[in-house]
Amino acid sequence: MKKIASFGVALLALGAFAGGCSRARESAATQPAPSSQASPASVAQVVSGTADIGKPAPDFTLSDLDGRPFHLASARGKIVVLEWFNPKCPFVNLSHTKGSLKDTAARHTAEGVVWVGIDSAAEGKQGSDPGEIRDAVKRFGLSHPILRDGTGVVGHAYGATNTPHLFVIDKDGTLVYAGAIDNSPDAEGDSPQGGPLQNYVDAALADLAAGRPVRTPKTKAYGCGVKYGS
Fold first, then answer.
1. pTM of the entire structure?
2. Are residues 213 and 106 in the same domain?
3. 59 contact partners, CB below 8 Å, separation of at least 6
4. Same domain, 17 and 56
5. Do both 17 and 93 map to the same domain?
6. SS3 call for 202
7. What region, left, alpha or beta, does residue 206 occupy, with left being phi > 0 and alpha being psi -120 to 50 degrees?
8. CB 187 within 8 A of CB 148
């Protein structure tokens, strides 16, 4: 009888344990799965240093308008172009509709270059409104992402002073060009300085494709000042 009683107690304990496990599984099933998509408010992360020609480009993670994260290091092995962007800046608008940025990103992304725009305008400042950014993307026919850098931490790491301001990173992750899109500060391509119109980014990418050092690694950017918060 003692054996039977002990067996019964064991069965009761086993049933309680199984019921607890079942309830735990049901509870877990009702919890939302963790999202793999970053929030649009994701904090920018600068992993290393500041930008210098000939040195590794500062690594970072930023999210696009839909909250999808872009990690610079994930593009290692490809050439990357960073373009500082402001949808309300007249220079950005002229360059994308009449000047040297018109269709430039599309041409190079078709060749395998990774091109991303970065908007470092602080919240409430010119160029920070997501709706205005989306409208500009449509107007300019852009297919590459525009990343949000509202804290300005990535812009400051790269020393981005203007919109547009361009940076070219080679396949090894080294910064090889920083500066203006071209030598025409009117942004329309009508008033080149120092000779014929020259698209510096086109030239830098051509040098990389030919396996030679970038002949013009740095120029002075022109355009609107980046609307940092501080």
1. 0.81
2. yes
3. 46, 47, 48, 71, 72, 73, 173
4. no
5. no
6. helix
7. alpha
8. no
